[in-house]
Amino acid sequence: MHGPKPRSHAIKLQKMVRHLGLKVALSAQTAEGKLLVFEDLEVPSHKTKNIVNYISQMEDKKRCC
């Protein structure tokens, strides 16, 4: 009768508030340089190994200039 009862402690947020929070968080990480954003990513092939090399080359170019 007075035992534990399962409860959800999740906080309900409106969809727009969640969307805005995600937008702010991603913008902050982009501004700090922790997140790379590509508008058009054209790689020669879609193998993971080639994409990793391509991105690392782009990061090296960004650091040198």
UniProtKB/TrEMBL annotation:
Pfam families: Ribosomal_L4. GO terms for molecular function: structural constituent of ribosome. SUPFAM superfamilies: Ribosomal protein L4. The keyword Ribosomal protein applies. One of its GO terms (biological process) is translation. Keywords: Ribonucleoprotein, Ribosomal protein. Belongs to the universal ribosomal protein uL4 family. PANTHER family: 50S RIBOSOMAL PROTEIN L4 (PTHR10746), LARGE RIBOSOMAL SUBUNIT PROTEIN UL4M (PTHR10746:SF6). This is Large ribosomal subunit protein uL4m. It comes from Arundo donax (Giant reed).
